[in-house]
TrEMBL record, chains A, B:
PANTHER family: MERR-FAMILY TRANSCRIPTIONAL REGULATOR, REDOX-CYCLING DRUG-SENSING TRANSCRIPTIONAL ACTIVATOR SOXR. The keyword Transcription regulation applies. It comes from the Bacteria. Pfam families: MerR_1. It comes from Paenibacillus aceti. Residues 1-70 form the HTH merR-type domain. Keywords: DNA-binding, Repressor, Transcription, Transcription regulation. The keyword Metal-binding does not apply. InterPro entries: DNA-bd_dom_put_sf, MerR-type_HTH_dom, MerR_fam. This is HTH merR-type domain-containing protein.
Length: 125, 125
DNA sequence: ATTTGACATAGAGTTCACTCTAGGCTTTAT
DNA sequence: ATAAAGCCTAGAGTGAACTCTATGTCAAAT
């Protein structure tokens, strides 16, 4: 019943340091304490998974904090949290499109590298 | 014939500071000088575009430097540059898949946020 | 002739997201 | 009873990628 910080570190592949850092930064206001020690439950892991997703898709820590604050404040504000999540979803979709465009450019450059090389660096010109 | 640093800044939407920084970091060894001032040509812009693509897809500066060094050394090593580019292409493809998975998680969480909220924060439990 | 503007360098400062150290407490094993 | 392991906090340190400041040069405009 309840995980220690190092068990959560294993489960989430975050370091213990990072989890404490996230807590310090206000990302984990929902974590319980027992005699000063953090005790994590399954729902907490779900929240941390979401936090990791947001981080991995480029949301800065302070925006994640804002999101979590909206979610923990009260029912009225959870909608604002939802709004942030939906907006971020659109950002990530755009991000995928941008990365795909970069990928196309990289593929193009792979095919044209010898030529780019010649034009610029060949002793021949 | 040839662009100034601020013209290149406009074209690439990098700042003048960033371009100088990249040069300092050895990313732009191909840029000519005239009386101490950098003079950029169209091929240089193509190289800078590639550099931006690599940066935007998460390649660290020092790896970009290595790549550029391979490309500028001599014909024998340009193949090594090509190899790096192809490897990076695979990384980016993986990165897109990862981001798509994160996106799916975010979509799932959007649908389950009210429930996650209730389970953890509702006064009712 | 002087002022303005764009360029240059060296190096300091900033921000972000960790990552680690020092020092302390508490439970468990020997 | 002492040592080891695992938790805690506060705060210092790190590395990446800029971003800016100070200072200086030089060419063109007034």
């Amino acid at each position: 019943m309840g995980y220690t910080i190092s068990q959560v570190a294993e489960k989430t592949s975050l370091s213990v340091y990072t989890i404490r850092y996230y807590d310090k930064e206000g990302l984990l206001p929902f974590v319980d304490r027992e005699k000063g020690k953090r005790v994590f439950h399954d729902q907490d892991i779900e929240w941390i998974d979401l936090i990791c997703c947001l981080k991995n898709t480029g949301m800065p820590i302070k925006d994640i904090r804002t999101f979590i604050q909206y979610c923990t404040d009260n029912d009225a504000v959870v909608d604002k949290g939802l709004e942030i999540l939906i907006q971020h979803k659109h950002n990530v979709e755009q991000q995928i499109r941008d990365t795909q465009r970069s990928l196309e450019t990289i593929e193009y450059k792979i095919n044209h590298l010898p030529q780019m090389y010649k034009e610029k660096f060949s002793t021949h010109h």
